[in-house]
Fold:
Amino acid sequence: MRLLVVLVEPIYEGNVGSVARAMKNFGFSDLVLVRPCEIEEFGLAMASHARDLIEGARVVDSIEEAVEGANLVVGTTGVRGLSTDRHLRIPSLSPQELAERLDGTTGEVALLLGREDDGLSRVELLACDVVVTIPTSSGYPIMNLSHAAAILFYELSQVEPGEVKLAGQASLAWLYDNFRVALVESEYHQHKLDKTMLMLKRILGRAQLTDREVQTLHGVVRNLRWGAKHRGGEPPEDGEVRVTDEIKRTGRAQNPPI
Structure:
């Protein structure tokens, strides 16, 4: 697993230096800065022997540019139990739970650490595949950026690499696009479409899909789209499962062979 540490609009150069130092403590070296503050001698001094990470950091203008190519995008927040409304939760993992889920996988994980004063916005968190929260005291839950980073780095340094390659963002985006098209073609409620897509993204993000699983889900969605359009004609001969006649006969589809 390759961990990409993304600092989003950091305000204090000392924190940037401290995060770089913590990265080096736990064996991580890929740092990306999104619209950072000026990092001068104080920030480099706080980095100590990790100043090379700051000097070699990639500086970008947007989160989208920072996480391009990542297999999994992890957002961090100090607020537990986030939700957009009563229908859509934003459940979070602890750092240990995230590490356990990543055990045995391979790929690039982008870890987003937000602004010192305001963290990541709700919109930014919704765009992440997984959200992580450190279980702190309810009396004072918000941690210093570099302290929180050190805890996350420690847990993630325990991840044992494996052979299970996580699906890439492009592959997942392709799946989400096809889900949206299927919903539109099935005349799904227009006013619910965006929230339903957000919910699907949350569910599938937590599932940490592989490319093969994405391909399988894409085949399911494609077959559903075909069935909704043709309603009983012959399906295309490309390995898709014929379910239309079975639904007509029994009212439900039998489980197709794997």
Q: What stands out?
A: The chain has eleven helices and ten strands. The chain has a mean pLDDT of 83. Residues 73 and 110 are 5 Å apart (CA to CA). Strands lie at 2-8, 30-34, 58-60, 72-76, 82-83, 89-90, 105-106, 108-113, 130-132, 164-165.
